[in-house]
Amino acid sequence: DAVALRKGQPIDLDGVPHKCIESQASKQARQAAVIRTKLVNLVTGNNIEKTFKSNEKLEKAAIEYTSVTFTYVDEGSYVFTNMETFEEERLPAELLGDAVAYLSEGMDVKVAKYDGRAIDMELPTTIDTPILETEPGEQGDRANAGSKPAVVAGGKVIQVPLFVNVGDMVRVDTREDRYVTRV
Fold first, then answer.
1. What is the CATH number of domain 64-122?
2. How many whole angstroms separate alpha carbon 25 and alpha carbon 15?
3. What does the pLDDT read at residue 26?
4. What sequence ranges are listed for the domain Translation elongation factor P/YeiP central (predicted)?
């Protein structure tokens, strides 16, 4: 059902795989609930907005996932190794998008393929990363609801609690760029 559609989930729309990048349910008086979504076409990379009825049936996209390990960057391509076959696969930075900020050598990820062609990469749900930059948090400072911006490895900026300092290892939810806990 469309009501179960979540961010990052692949669906088949008119025979073409799409990935949900945003999903919001809304209900108006005396009308059935609708699900407003933003989808990215995994073949062309184009974004579309689509509204579904909440009870509308959606088909899961016929996508094959392969587990690979990130090894290195070479001339704008990110090189991954399939640890079962030891084949290397090069993916362009455009395909990976914002996910490159979280990539680190030796990280296991999943590459999504459609018709034998890489169309997307899926990071682990959470990763552990060091805090590279943040302001010292004042315990009495509550103007910013007990959080402050911090730069993690890869350059991504996330909100962290005031007690987190430079050098601390934190767990980050890669789907929402959100602090989970200090590790």
1. 2.40.50.140
2. 24
3. 87
4. 65-119
- When the candidates are 3.30.1490.20, 3.20.20.70, 1.10.10.10, 2.30.30.30, the CATH number that belongs to 2-60 is 2.30.30.30
Is residue 68 within 8 A of residue 82, CB to CB? The reply is yes
Distances (CA, A) of 106 to 17, 65, 68, 102, 147: 29, 18, 9, 12, 31
pTM: 0.74
For 137, the token pair is 């948090």
Q: CA angle at residue 154 from 175 to 6, to 5 degrees?
A: 10
- Topology of 126-182 in CATH? OB fold (Dihydrolipoamide Acetyltransferase, E2P) (2.40.50)
Low-confidence ranges of the chain (pLDDT < 50): none
Domain ranges of the chain: 2-60, 64-122, 126-182
Distance, in Å, from the CA atom of 61 to the CA atom of 59, rounded to the nearest integer, reads 6
Residue 154 burial (10 A CB sphere; 0-12, 13-18, 19+): middle
Tell me the per-residue pLDDT of 92-129, one tens digit each, with 9 for 90 and over.
988 888 888 899 899 999 998 988 888 888 999 999 99
Residue 175 has what pLDDT?
84
Which pLDDT belongs to residue 141?
A: 55
